């Protein structure tokens, strides 16, 4: 008899985490690795957020917190939703969790029964499908093709919905493609969802503030107020404020019944979020917001450099994304070739493994996100690293025969 639960049989280890670990192993051998696999901002946490956490600790704010977030943080979150998204939520409609991933985990565990379907536009973050499986649900991938800018088309969404559909998961700006939905794009999605009132909508807006070229972010409950009671809007402080290690995400919904169920799960798998992390998040959300545009401008410069550099490489094609800090190059033209080290390229997995082993650049295969033949590059790192990484990728491709 196995000591491991059956529920883990179809749950895989994150491919991006695995590639980051591979890069660490090579680095431990003294090899200089250019790691472009991790979706983690290289900026520091804002000083005022750190100072707020320090002050809270010194003031004795180190006891058990409320399970679903302090009143002060919920007020800051409500203020953020009103300021950035024109959405009105009160404290009873908000739950704070240990990062955005826990929000999604709690939501799926609170609502999915065995066999319930969850529609996931693909390419998608690697954890969505695994979390759905863990909760007993069935992930249903809806391809978002490069020709459509990696965006979800209304007709494809319509075709994917069945009587068993429990959720639609939206993530725009998207991981791994960086694709973002315009207001017209989102309105078309909303029109489909209005025709299917049995389906909940989870929108992962974690890359909200990382949009470029005057692109305007929008979220579905803002675009279509008639969906307010069916939408769970998730966000956090990790990407925009470079607070990945503080582990704080939050969600809000017009449905207090849904929030109550999520809060129940939240209280069973955790004892509330660190009080000092909550103090830091309050400072980030209530403090100066100018740094968001300043950092987005730097990300835009990096994106432009990477897209331009990769587009000059024979065998690669690189779509220019509207947001996030990823590009998703197409390497189809290299399939069938052999690397200088003798590896036959039969798909994106061979490509990324050959790249890290032979030229020591860590990226992530498109297969991990549900769409090949692509690979993901994160440009949440310095221009120096990006220049070196792109040069090595160019050399790797040029040496193929």
Report on this structure.
With 401 residues, this protein is α/β, with parallel strands linked by helices. The protein has 13 helices and twelve strands. The protein folds into two domains: 6-44 and 291-398, Aspartate Aminotransferase, domain 1 (Alpha-Beta Complex), CATH 3.90.1150; 47-286, Type I PLP-dependent aspartate aminotransferase-like (Major domain) (Aspartate Aminotransferase, domain 2, 3-Layer(aba) Sandwich), CATH 3.40.640.10. It has a seven-stranded mixed sheet with strand order 2-8-7-6-5-3-4, with helices on both faces. The protein has a three-stranded antiparallel sheet with strand order 9-12-11. Strands 1-10 form a two-stranded parallel sheet. The chain starts with 14 loop residues before the first helix and ends with a helix.
In brief, what are we looking at here?
The chain has helices spanning 15-28, 47-58, 71-85, 100-111, 126-134, 154-160, 183-194, 220-223, 256-269, 275-286, 290-311, 348-358, 383-398; strands spanning 34-35, 94-97, 117-122, 138-143, 165-170, 200-204, 231-236, 249-253, 326-327, 361-362, 364-365, 375-378.
